[in-house]
Design goal:
Layout: H1 3-7, H2 13-31, H3 38-45, H4 49-55, H5 59-82, H6 88-104, H7 110-113, H8 122-147, H9 151-174, H10 181-196
Helix pairs in contact: 2-3, 2-5, 5-6, 5-8, 6-9, 6-10, 8-9, 9-10
Length: 212
């Protein structure tokens, strides 16, 4: 069997696709989207370029597929953390730990989510905004259930907490020298908790003045 034949050995389509995605993730994380080439990705995946293009028509298609997977992992992880306890103080810490864990993962998937140079692309931006909204909605649902705040008010708070998580995690991962993850999570959790605990579980309704 020649080298070229071994590279193109038949493999189930889904398995081949996962192989290509794994290679693409490594290349994007190491080189960035713009510097990465389809030639390099094909070589890393051990396939020919025609095989690569059978699965993904272009580099952006590869990136979007990886981004979708990263977003699903992040949103699912946040949801699991929020459902892991009914104690809201512990819930704040668990949620932040899940977010920082996503950023700290060895596969570098967070770099796809935080890639600033691609936010101008409408497809990328739409996906990132979808992820941010999904997380904010999960937070808002718990806030609304616990405080009695209406959907609009609860979502504003949820969006604020989502933004806090993303901002803190982005700063932490880019910081040199790096800060201990547990310490970073604790600092962010204290900030978030001191804000959200101001809204009691039985939030009193706003009383309107009869003169207004």
């Amino acid at each position: 069997m020649t080298h070229e034949t071994s590279r193109s050995a038949r493999m189930p389509k889904e398995q081949r696709r996962e192989q290509v995605l794994a290679a693409a993730r490594e290349v994007f994380v190491a080189e960035g989207f713009h510097a990465a080439s389809m030639d390099t990705i094909a070589e890393r995946a051990g396939v020919t370029k025609p095989v690569l293009y059978q699965h993904f028509p272009g580099k952006l298609d590869l990136y979007l597929a990886l981004l979708d997977t990263a977003i699903d992992e992040l949103v699912t992880g946040i949801g699991q953390a929020m459902r892991s306890t009914t104690d809201n103080n512990a819930r704040v810490r668990a949620t932040l730990n899940a977010y920082f864990g996503f950023v700290d993962a060895s596969d570098g998937a967070f770099r796809l989510f935080f890639e600033r140079d691609l936010r101008s692309d409408t497809q990328v931006n739409a996906r990132v905004e979808r992820a941010e909204r999904a997380i904010a909605v999960q937070i808002a649902e718990i806030i609304s259930a616990d405080t009695g705040l209406n959907e609009q008010d609860a979502f504003l708070l949820g969006a604020g907490l989502q933004g806090l998580m993303e901002s803190c995690a982005r700063h932490w991962v880019q910081q040199v020298p790096s800060m201990d993850r547990a310490h970073a999570v604790e600092l962010a959790a204290q900030l978030a908790w001191r804000g959200i605990r101001a809204f009691p579980k039985t939030h009193p309704p706003v009383v309107q003045d009869d003169d207004h």
